[in-house]
Batch of 4 targets.
Target 1
Amino acid sequence: MSEEKRVKKSEKVTLDITGMHCTSCALNIEKKLEEEEGVISADVSYSTGRASVEYLPEQIDKQKIPEIVEDTGYKGFFVAEDEEEYATDPVTGMRVLKSKAIHKQFGGRTYYFYDEESLKKFESPDDELKSMRRRVAFALSGVFLLAFLRVAATLTLAAGVSLISWAPIPALPWFTWGYWLFILTTPIQFIGGWTFYKGAYYAVKNRALNMDFLIAMGTLTAWTYSTVVIFFPGLLPVSTTDVYFEVSAVIIAFVLLGKFMEDYIRQRSSAAVRKLLDLRPKTAHVIRDGKEQEILAELIMKGELVVVRPGERMPVDGVVVEGETSVDQSMVTGESIPISKKEGDEVIGATINKQGMIKFEATKVGSETTLMQIVKLVEDAQSSSAPIQRLADRVSAYFVPAVVSVALITFAGWIIVGDFTQGILSFVAVLIISCPCALGIATPAALMVGVGKGAENGVLIRGGEYLERAHKLNKVVFDKTGTLTKGKPEVTDIIAENKEEIIKMAAIAERGSEHPLAEAILKKAASAGIEDDESTNFEAVPGHGIKVKWNNKDIVVGNRKMMAVEGVDIVSFEEEIQALEVEGKTVILVSADKKMQGMIAIADTLKDNSLEVVSSLYQIGVESIMLTGDNDRTANAIAKQIGIKRVIANVLPHEKLEVIKELQEEGNIVAMVGDGINDAPALAQADIGIALGSGTDVAKETGGIILVNDDLRDVVTGIKLSQATMKKIRQNLFWALAYNSAAIPLAAFGFLNPIIAAAAMSLSSLTVVSNSALLKRFKIKK
């Protein structure tokens, strides 16, 4: 695009695209869009099903962009992005006032439609997947019926009985087995295979031949040839039993199944965004006209006063103007301990208010909130991290035209030598031998076995794009809280003359608190068999500690600030406090009647096998890095225990993503291991995202590999299994192409009739399946 065109004022629009089945579909749409006058650039992602288009409004109408997409055989809908109280109608692209629009939920998102007509035109990706599932079920049912009848026919003929004699149709002498095949396979051919024919039509129309074209041409040729043999006997010098209806039906059924599996995996990957969006509260309480009102959270406007009670989520970002509380914002910082909030402090949308009621002024709403920015980061990372370029689709760019050319040249060559019949047979043989049945199932066959093997051992592998990069992996980035550590604080040290008495006083004081540190103390008291007791005058001071009255003593449990406020001298304990803090531990001080009684150290402890995993990764040449939102002191203390040399602390979600990007820009292939919402953008950006099974749904849906059993040793297992699976996929693609490529010359020169060609094609499929089955021998070592 010329520089002159770029300096003009341009706009960008994002579209959801339905109907794509491979990366070549995305490339074809990109090509068509960029050929249009007024379009500066187009970026279409098959993995996310979205297109980002930059265009010049004075040269092309925004409404024309979905029409261009439709002209390539797919459907495009504007993404309904939030603009405070307005949204975008996905069909018309018009700005719609949310309060007056028709709103519907699709895939975790709320879409706003201008009118019912617009709603009817919208087709969600879920609807598309359901439609494909019905076609797959239809085609496979037909193939199974064919197999049953073929077996029945063979058995009855072996017994000397004609299948026609018990068939529910007139026993006409001309009604042979071939007619049965024609009746049974034709619906599969044109209903089940409709998407291939449609794709082939648009491929020809847009001068971009793809796998759909080869599948359509090969199966249609086999079906047409067989139909001619059955209905016009004698026209070709072959027997009426030499038909290939079954071959055509099986190709359609199993290639369609492979396409469905790929689409299913792709659709499931987008569930990460759905889980994130589910974190937003649907309603919120705001102060309007001096009264508290409940409204849709999406309708909150900047500057409005929002009321949040204990246990509720913050609907948007803002600044506290009244009240004090503690907020669980682990989704952003990764810290398991709630953060104190008072007047003037910022609160983040979707975080949880743990204690007191607060009022805050909304400063970021709609797409500006931290949560929606995380959503955007996940979507962008999924789009920009290069999805696997299916070798079958890459090869098809050259393979399809080459096969068609060879078939036509073969036909012309036989005509020149004067053998028209042999020309027809050789033409059909070339197309049948090159039908990409094995090519179509090469990837899903290996994936099914590899994924199944992993699932048996608690390692879920989500898709091929993660497998392609595994053998080059050289960096594994670990989140700390909940990944390398247990994510729940535990009592590690008790410094006091009477340890049991200290725990008892702390437990009595903390009994009314919901703070995670309180839970750690109560758990320690319970495990030590310390009996509970009643206290009075309970008073919680957010961010400081707790005061109670027990056994005629004023008990205070809290931090340095709490002791200073209560006038408790802690100077003699300061050295021990600092020593514990250097180890990354949180120190709880306990006093009675203004005299220090002792201290309790609490920390997030390491998970089992953390040290072993880091060591194993170093042994295979993979560096481990810790990336956490926690503070430097705690992070370095944990890293020292398990042998991680590189630590990056105090990072927010978008900063985690930037760290992953920087590592990738340095030429590294990076895996990210995490469990929290705050890890989602980094998991999506990484070449391989590895999520823990006990982690948040968002992390699991974003990760490419999921460790169901929370055993960190499965990080190494997952990498090795991924490498083995990818190796099988490459072998499968090689054998699929080798069979076909070697047999094409034989078919062209008349050494293979269509029957042998079909047998060779079936053999290539059998080889692919058998080779994939060998993955079951993969040994899981722990």
Target 2
Amino acid sequence: MALLTGCAVVLGLLAGTLGRGEADAGDAGFVGPSYSGTTAPTGQKPQSKLWFANGRWWGVLWDVVSKDFHVFGYDATANQWYDTGTLVDTRANVAADALYDGTHVYVVSAGSSSTNSAHSPQLRRYHFDTTADAWVADPGFPVTIATGGAEAYVLDEDSTGRLWVTFTQGSKVLLAHSTTSDTAWTPKYELPAAHDAQNVDADDISSVVAFDGDKIGVLWSNQRAGETKMYWAWHLDGTSDQTWSTAVAYDMPEGADDHINLKSLVGDDHGRVYAMVKTSMDHPTDPLINLLVLHGDDSWSTHVFATKSEDLTRGIVLIDLAHRLLYGLASGPCCAGGTVYYKSTSLDAPDFTTSSWVPFIHSAAHPEANNVTSTKQNLTAASGLMALAGDDQTRTYLYNLVPPDVIGPDTTPPETVIESGPDPVTTETSATFGIGANEPSTFSCQLDASTAVPCDSPYSVTGVGVGDHVMRVTAVDTAGNADPTPAESHWTVQSVDTTVLASDFSSLAGWEVFVGGGGTATIESDAVSSGNPGLRLTSTTADGATASVRTTLSEPLASMRLDVSSRVVLARSSQEISLLKLYDASGARLLSLTRTGAGALYVRDRTTASAQVAGPALGAVARIALVVTVRDGADSWRLEVDGVPVASSDAADLGSLAVSRIRLGDDSLRREVDQRFDDLVVRR
């Protein structure tokens, strides 16, 4: 408590003990812009309206001139919020949630009516333009990511870059997530949870948080009679949408209410997820707001933040890693508000009972400060602590900032993580690594004993020799702290010949031929490259016309690489053609590579087609490779053209069987096509 008590003196805040909603005399914090024309723009409870980036605070605020929501910036010198003019939402009464991932700012905003399509959630993405010194909207947005409004749409991003939202509609906890890009989303679906997430009270809400470096978690309330608990479900990144583990986070009579605010840590022994939640208890000594902490053994501990007699509401939690402190903020009296108070406690051993309430935001001229909001990010010495509230009586923003010099210098190094890398044993002489950290950082990468070089995610190395190798990655945070224990990835490159099938197409021995309606499958000189024989497949638009060849591998392969030289000489602009297909032993298609009429390529697994990428022009020769791994619940594929990866998926649906058969050419009917193949190699 000593740290921010000192801040209270600096900012003229008056410390005192809160009792039954009585606010201390005197103003605390500052008066911000008007928000006349909208209501409660700093709500809802699980959402965050602010983020810290490029050395300053930013937020989603209402502009009274244009009557819509914009990105605002905070000018520390003038101590005021200013409108950047960057549009967020033209709708007046929406609730927004902002996420900064170190590169982009994502904002999801929606109205509250689940039956009104005009209230549906819109997702926008922004990047920072250093020349304009402002956030600029990315093309392709906004995207409507679900149907109908909700009390609160909450957004986070997992380790694969997938965006998730959770919300409640029709007494169900629902999810949606991005797929092949930030603009492509699944339909909304029910959270697959053992604890009846499909039957909650109409007043209940849910929130989502990324944690542990490779998981996404959802916390929700259930206030139905006989339930009144806080529930938790978590999901390993990259696994099936239907694979979730569930638990009870808090189980007490009247233990649930629709107030949830989540934060997370990475690689910390004292807690992975911190949740500020409200109960429905009504005895004066009962806990009204609790801090729930998820520990490494998946157990939850409970720490009372405020009792019923203290009459607070809409609590949020913030993490200060530099000083290993937690800050809890809430407004009182319930439920219109009046003053935003805070307490701080140790991150390692939370105990809010030993400190007094301190007014953080209070204005005699604006007497209903409420709905306090801040950032999803952990606080640093650079950021300080910024919180924003609103007074719905005067339609005015209120805010306060604990300056960086009061928070203190950031001396805590980041935790580096290698999120993905090569298989432990491989014959590949190249490797690609997904790298990250638990806070915004720059990175250096060191292969074996070579000199470390600056790097970003994904980071690739080529020409890796046979033998054992290690990649060491070091994160350096914005305060200059370097991780003293770099993350490491170890793997071995083997030289064993892993060829399962090789064909130079000097003959069709070993291949089944499928032709009809005038289609042909022949071996021709110069089919692909000058001086070499190759496979030529032709088909027309005549009835029954088709041309393809198929072979069965000598052994089923759960992990394989297929390389083949391809040349498409003729293809109608109005038709798509298959270049190759992979099947299991039963003949079920697992994966196909298709060329569009416009010349683009895309890959389709059993259920989903990838985004299209530019393919070789008609007549051009290209070396095409498909790298496929079939693992139940974690299938993946990668498409390369002339040695360059152009598309991939780590969440493919290839079933649980191995690849047994390969087809070249298009087995559809009436496709006018002339395509050629040569030098096919399949390796384990």
Target 3
Amino acid sequence: MNLDDLEELASEVRAAGDSCPHCVRVCMAASCQSSGASPVLERLNEQLAGRDDVRVKSVGCMGLCSAGPLVEVQSRERAEPVLYQSVAAEDASEIAGSLGGEPVQRLRCPTDVPFFARQQKIVLENSGRIDPEDINDYIAADGYRALVTALTEMRPAEVLREIEISGLRGRGGGGYPAGLKWSTVAKMPADQKYVICNADEGDPGAFMDRAVLESDPHRVLEGMAIAAYAVGASKGYIYIRAEYPLAIERLKAAIRQAVRKGLLGSSICETQFSFELELRLGAGAFVCGEETALMASVEGERGQPSPRPPYPAESGLWGYPTLINNVETLANVPAIIRRGGEWFAGIGTDKSKGTKVFALAGRIENTGLIEVAMGITLREIVDAIGGGVPAGRKFKAVQTGGPSGGCLPEQFLDLPVEYDTLREAGSIMGSGGMIVMDETSSMVEVARYFMEFCMTESCGKCIPCRVGTHEMHGLLDKIVKGRGTQDDLALLEELCEVVQRTSLCGLGQTAPNPVLSTLRYFRREYEEKLSGNAAPAHGPAAKEATA
């Protein structure tokens, strides 16, 4: 398939869609399905059966998960689509009857609010718009255009150059420059190279990668194929946890469809480039998000980290050079190749380019999935986009970066969200989880919750993490229960430093972060627990968000 073939198919699909006066999109991502979207879709199909002026379409995540199930109606006579929230199966007949007339006002969800207006979508540009199980729908939205362009009009070095110019940094947490990582793999002399998509998303309260894979799986496949062409790889793996059945189902379908279209497999676009792609299911071990543990799991070994160097770019899967990027990083690639590295570099800040996808959770009005330009402030995310803390309560802290991140108090709400500023404040960007806590949250309990998570998820290979997290959790539990002493607090701080500096991998090295940040900004709560003067507080918002 060449660019002319791709454009011809895209034009045909777009023309077929334009000929239909009404399009009803039903969110069928996991969040809306859990709220009852399947009966809504079924009832709408029943109500609109036999009508050739309406197309009912299953789509991915529309973002505002707290208002699901979501249904969007786009009609030719209206400039803007109408979004309906909290739709029940019983509402299907009323929605069907409103087509061509006045919308159902009681179900309308306003779309001129900051939650929608202040977002800037690159990774999520197709989410909620296309059918994730239909490759033609993706192609109609300029899908695979970047891959075909790269294979037929660009040399691998030119693709690498665009990624370097873009300033794209890894969205998995560390923020390592993608162009530098790709170039390192490309320079390695080897008969075999691999590309791995790390989809082992395990942070409590995080669902960014899952939503992207459920909503736009072909985008990730296209990004992987472009990466493989650029670095000289011929084989790829998507490592995804088995707890994501819907994402797995849609990825399998997407791979089959891409192979049939000649966009994956042998001699793609009738060129000499071939790229085979397989899924590998993880059993849910958080440590397998670390790249060396992930590779061990792909190889069929126990998922435990290994010392570095050598790094995967030099000696990775089965000893061969391996490029590992997470879902969001790879999902940015097609847009960069289509629009150019300079376009992407023009978004965001000097050191943090592009956009970032966040999962808003915890005690916040608008829970869901958002994508914003780097450099936006925490206040804009929490108060404007997120709608603030509900029930008239006061904001207390926001935790970014999952168990590896930190808890930032109100004084940091005007902090721009970028890699370096968050790190300086005592947190990290992480993969994009963002949990908001209100005045009822006990920050000592929050620290204990995340330490319990890290303790449980430790693979046990190195003593600092295996023993240190257990001891730190014990100290935190003792303090929470009012039995702690000043000596316990001093020992806790000492242990944080030891575990941080001596653990083998990122899990142990970052496990103390929630403790250190809460000690730094909420030390008074620890002191009150020691003296027995703590005010009663409910369980941590982090636990509530992941229940």
Target 4
Amino acid sequence: MSWWQTFRDRLASLRGRPALDALLAHARPDHPLAERVAWAEDLFAWVRRDAPATRLRLLLQVLERQPGARQRVAQTFRSIVRDTEALDLFADTGLPGGMGFMRELLSRLVSDVLPNPPETRDLADIFDRLFPRGRVADWLEQLDAEHAAQILDLFQHGELPEEGGWVSLRTDLEDAMVQLADRICVVGSSREVRARLGKASFRELPFQKLTPAVEALLARRQAGSPLSELAAELNVVRGVADACDRAMEEVIGCLEKTGVSTTLVYDIERLRAQVRRLELLLEAWAAPALEPQRKLAILADLVRQNHARRSVRELCRQNLHLLTRRIVERNAETGEHYVARNGREYAGMLRSAAGGGALTGFTTLVKLLLAKLSLAAFFQGAFFGLNYAVSFVAMQLCGFSLATKQPATTAPALARRMDELPSAPQLEALVDEVVFLIRSQIAAVFGNLALVIPATLLLDLLWKFITGEHIVNEPKSEMILGTVAPWSGCWFFAMFTGVLLWLSSLFAAWMDNWFVLHQLGPALAQHRGWQRWLGPTRTRRLAMWLERNVAGLAGNISLGFLLGMAPTVAVFFGLPLDIRHVTLSTGQVTAAFAMLGGAHFWMLSTVWIVLGILGTGLLNIVVSFSLALFVAIRARNVRGPELRLFYGALFKRLLKSPLSFVLPVGVVQSNNHGSH
């Protein structure tokens, strides 16, 4: 239920709802339809309050003791069904419309705020008003057979001859089946879907066969054939619906490999919901004498689907799930390169991080020199971002690494291994992987810091030799040291920087998805202009290089400008935000100490500065890693019991071999590591 409906219900309860006796007395089948619907809405609201199942039983007991009230209530309910149409209830209610993601999102946001129409002949609108809460479905399914039968009997109690023909639900149900089959055929046969179904003939698509199968079934029934003789036609419809499901799974599998289109994902979700609704209607149509509990279960399913499809949160979750999974898969592939599983890879990580630290020394020099120019805030942020971006891209091209960039890509690599955790060997293998990952991050941080300090000192000496002065003056040095002390807010800014690190990994994977979705690699390889300019061979090589590196380039460039521009944008909005990146901060602190001299380094305040830098590095990693892991777990649907098993095993490993989390010792590698 939306927040607006919750607010309205609570406001109404404060004003006082009518008592049950007053509600039953106001049941009038001869009143205008709008008044009858309002009465039914009040009655259902009374039932939903507090304990719905208990209140429903009380209502049924009161009606048993008051035959007159029971007769009026039954006639009023029948009159509502008689004077309304159920086609949209069966074919539309709870299903995504054909408006596309953005229009559907806007429609749902508006529908949460606008009031319901006061008078309508559409039973779907009345259905929304009677069941505004999704949890109604739970207690409807929990009703026992006796009370379910009493509810259904209420609709037929005291039926008079002049009320004949009040039930048009079966005709509307058949019309809804045909309408759904037509819609499935149109969307399922679209160009975007067919392009991902191999070389299947258009007329052989299962979506094309659905409408003829449904019409053949209904034609046999209208010709007078009993339901018992329609088994063959029913099986044909069910078989075609299953084939449609398999075709949609094939499309989804293709999306995960070749890139995700949000519009197509929305269409697939709409197809799935429509096929599921058609199967539900087919069950109700083929067995009109269903048990009362099963009929209420179908009603509950309609309620649940209705609220799932009206929920803004559910719409975003469904449409972004595959895109998120694609991001996770791409980052998992990238993250595999940042996990050191043995001593040789651990040493390689240290060397790679050391190179990144050396380059960061140059980045620090340029950043401090740019700060001296006293540029306007926007241009200063833009030049800072350009400096970072060029530095990060250079690291990528040289094969170096920046420690805090890695967790956002290594976390999905970890979540990939959470798919199957029940067995002990798999659990141990996952714990091994976490140990490898943590110590790889520690190695990367210390590799960065080990070289950024001497690189910055050497650059400061060179700058002093050329210009006769240090990179920064004394007041600037004091200010830099003050910004990394724990009480300066640097740890909060470090967490904010961790969020930016995570966002850059999302942008990198999104760009990779966009590049693959639009098949830019093959398109660039066959581009006639490029081929005339570079030659066919070089053009193909360039296209292949871009396909391999587009994610890294996008991530590095976006991270650079996020770090450079975020403080400028924050100041524009009056927000006290800044960035604190462990390697960049260490470079600036080194430049400050180079100015102040060695004596200043041995002061007590240096201890707090070191603690501030270490805390900054820890928070950079923890925040970006946690966000990436959370998204990866949600995208892969890892369940709570599996997570608890994993956390318990990880804690045991920490107690058993704490040193293995820092150095490449004490962990027995599982055989399946090499497979990744």
